[in-house]
Design a protein that fits this description.
- Helix content is about 45%, strand content about 20%.
- A 3-stranded antiparallel sheet has the order 1-3-2.
- About 10% of the residues are buried.
- With about 80 residues, the protein is an alpha+beta fold.
- The longest helix has 13 residues.
């Protein structure tokens, strides 16, 4: 599993976060990703069932689903 995925899961395990707040938190940890790349990654994780996506205008908030301990890279 990738280091980026591990850090993202640890950050989201404690709280729900918007894309901008998640990007700021990841930047603090040394993972400066463009927000469009981060958005695509979060959407893919949502479509695979790893994250819940809540629409709170004007942003979307992501929450890690509980009990999801599968490896995202294994189908």
């Amino acid at each position: 599993m990738s280091e980026f995925h591990n850090i993202l899961t640890k950050v989201l395990a404690n709280k729900q976060m918007s894309i901008s707040s998640l990007a700021r938190e990841l930047k603090k940890k040394g993972h400066d990703q463009h927000r469009l790349i981060l958005t695509g990654y979060l959407r893919a994780l949502h479509e695979m069932g790893y994250l819940e996506e809540i629409d709170i205008p004007p942003s979307k908030v992501y929450i890690l689903r509980s009990g999801m301990n599968r490896d995202v890279y294994v189908l």
